[in-house]
Amino acid sequence: MIRALGASRPFSAGGRWDADALRDMVRNYVVETLADPDAVLVIDETGFLKQGKASCGVGRQYTGSAGKITNCQIGVFAAYVSRHGHAFIDRTLYLPWAWTDNPARLAAAHVPDGTAFATKAAIAAMVIELAIAAGVPFSWVAADSVYGFGDIEMALRRAGRGYVLGVNSNHQFNSWQGKPPVAGTAEQIAALIAPRHWHRLSAGEGTIGARLHDWAYCELADLDAADDNEAHSGLWTRGLLNRRNIADGDLAFFSTWCPAGTVIQTLVTVEGHRWAIEDSFETTKNELGLDHNETRSWHGWHRHVSLVMLAFAMMAAIRHQANATPPPKSHRSASKPKTIRLPRL
Question: Is the pTM above the cut of 0.85?
Answer without folding.
Answer: yes
